[in-house]
Amino acid sequence: LASRMLKPEDTVIKIGSVKIGSGNFVIMAGPCAVESYEQMIETAKAVKKSGATVLRGGAYKPRSSPYSFQGLEEEGLKILKQVGKEVDMLTISEVVNTQHVELVAEYVDILQIGSRNMQNFQLLTEVGKAKKPVMLKRGLSSTIEEWLNAAEYIMKEGNYDVILCERGIRTFETYTRNTLDLNAVAAVRRLSHLPVVVDPSHGTGRRELIGPMSRAAVAAGADGLIIEVHPHPEEALSDGAQSLTPAEFDVVCQEVQRILSVM
Ligand code: PEP
Ligand code: MN
Q: Highest taxon of the source (predicted)?
């Protein structure tokens, strides 16, 4: 179902007035984790001004360490929904288990499947039954074929609104948090009709590399970007080192627009 052989034309996902895919470029931005109403409203107003149409914010955080901040859970979803409504932006947040799919779907416009759950087939099946678009992040050590098969699990249940997200893979390199695989963007655009967005925040783990990798992603044919932005990155409860300030994010957006205008 995800293959371009069966469906040659690009899929366009429509959510309200926002279209994603086939030349409709989308910018998603916001903090790694929802921390407070104040943090979210400040971030949302800023990223919207810079051109983002989707507000991100994790409420359930699958952290590498069990002692790290795990998210505000349903309270976080309430804040995200409220802020999205106030600033008129779509929202995206991660769902981490099958029991939460209905709950998260009540609050957000796009369900995110995180890297660590890319091959959680029961979860993929559940979001396949949900009536909301799904953004499927590539697993930390997953091949392109495994990633597309994961999309297939969702689509098999009747949910065709799947957005693929390249977020970097595990390699021997440790200078960056992950290795952003732009090969995969170009490859997946050929293999599949689904939109593919790039996450340079998790793909690099380093604030100073987000601008260059965002520009490269656009040039490689990505249909969108998802970028972590925090009003005070040094105080962020998660992923501060890879979070841009709103001012830095604005510069990245302007550079991206310049590249899009000549493509
Ligand atoms: C995230 O988007 O905050 C996240 C946890 O990403 P990933 O699943 O790609 O690590
Ligand atoms: Mn993060």
A: Bacteria
